[in-house]
Amino acid sequence: MNPNLFIAGVPKAGTTSLFRYLALHPEVHPSNPKEPGYFHPFKIEDRKKDIEFYKKCFSGHSGQKYAIEATPGYFYGGKESAEAINDFSPGSRVILVLRNPVDRLFSFYKYKKSLGHISGKLTFETYLDECKKIDSNQLIQKKNYDFWAMVGGKYHSLLLEWHNVFGDRLQVCFFDDMVKDEPQFVAEICKWLELDKSQIDDNKTKVQNKSMIYRSKGLQRFATSFDNRLSGVWHYLPWLKWPLSGIYNLVNAKPNTEKISDLLRNELVNYYSSDISKTRNFLEEMHIKNIPEWMVR
After folding, report:
1. The Cα angle at residue 21 between residues 254 and 229, in degrees rounded to 5
2. Per-residue pLDDT for 239 more than 50?
3. Fewest Cβ atoms nearer than 10 Å: which of 97, 151, 194, 196?
C-alpha cells in the first residue's frame, strides 16, 4: 500500500513525537524508517530509482486505515513535493505543524550542533551570521541546508503552495498546542482522521529528539545508526528504548542549556514579522481559530 498520511513539516516542531504517538493507533501503520525522505526536495529527482526502497518502508502493512511517514523537510519542497505526493497517493492527507520561527530556528541550530553537522565552535550569533549569507530567494539545497534554516522560518508562501494542492486534506497544527496538552492535540488530529483516540495508550508516549550536547561525536553517530536500524523494534517495544536512551545520555550527553539573547531574539522577531502577519491572515481565511500567541503580537 502507498502511504496515505504524511507529516510533512516543519523541522523541529515535534513531528517525531507526533509520528510516534499516531503510530500507536492500531489503525495506523508506521513507515520504517520514520523519515524515508522520498519526496524531499533534495531527492525528488531520484524517485524512480528509489521506489523499491520506499515501498519496503511500508512492508508489513496489514489493512490499517492509514500508512504514515514523517519527513519534515518535505515542507520546503513546496509545490513540487506537494504535487509529487498527491500524484503518488491521490486522496492522501498531510499534517503540517508550525512553530514560532525564532524558537524553531534556535532548536534547529542546537540540534545540528549536537549532531556535529555544524561546527561546535559556532555560537548562535555566529550561526546567524552564516545564515544571513543565504539569499532569502535562494531555494533549499543540500549544500546550504544547515544554514537555510533562517529562511526556512518564513512559512507563508510555502503554506499557500501546500494548501493549493491539498485543500481540506491539509491539517495545519501548532507546536504550542502539542506542548500544552499533547493527548488533546493528538485527539484533535484523530478526530480529523476519523480515528478513535481512546485506542492509543498515552502511557507509551515520550518526547523525541531533544537537543543534547554529546561528548563523543563518533559514539553519537554510531548510536544514531543503531537507533535507526531498530526503529521497528522501538515501535512495538518503546519501553525497551527508554532505559537504554537514559543510560546512553548519562554516559555521552547532557542537555543543551544555551539561551537566545534578548538582542538576537528581537532581531529575529523583526525579521519574521511581515511573514508571520501574512501567515496569520491566511490561516484566519482558512477559519483556523486557535492562532498561537506568537502570531498575534
Report:
1. 65
2. no
3. 194
